[in-house]
Amino acid sequence: MEVESARIKNEKSMAGPGGSATTSAFQGRRKWRNICLGVMGVLIFIIILIIILAFTVFKAKRPVTTIDDISLSSLRFGLDLAGVRVLFNASLDVDLSIKNPNKVGFKYKDSSAQLNYRGQQVGEVPIPAGKISADETVPMNLTLTVMADRLISDSNFISDLSGRQLPLNTFAKISGKVNVLSLFKIHVVSSTSCDFIVFLSNSSIGDQTCKYKTKL
Predict the structure, then answer these.
(1) What is the reported pTM?
(2) I need a surface site. Which of 104, 121, 123, 148 has the fewest CB within 10 A?
């Protein structure tokens, strides 16, 4: 019994300080490993959460540009018999709206609205750059003045003038970016095109048909 007790004491004395240091080092490594695994788990969770939000709640949607109304603000036309020429002067008021259905803001660059006659541009008005907040619709009132010289130079103008009907088209294009969670910048282009007829007999507008197009 005394021999066995002496052996056990001898083994404990050999394990002494060295064994304790080895145990502490192992526990320290295990602690840092657990911390690293925890940090990695949190980072992976955040990344997955951002991806889910980017493709669900904050998924980029298409802003829509709409022409709400077109009206004549002024119209004058006639014949200059002395100079043997046609006189024409017209301005149109265009009510335009841009809707941003996204949960983040939409920034758009400088653009313009055009007035066309049988495929030829006869008027233009600038649309300055701006920003539309989330779920906001911004109205714009534009005035397009007809470039009479371009209009009159078209070979179809005299016959349209005689028929008291002037076919015109307005075209507006907005280009910008949607910034999703400050990580994804998505380019968006929204355009609208409206065909209509100016009835010269009573200075009214009718037969309006609009087409809208948006792409990401």
Answers:
(1) 0.67
(2) 121
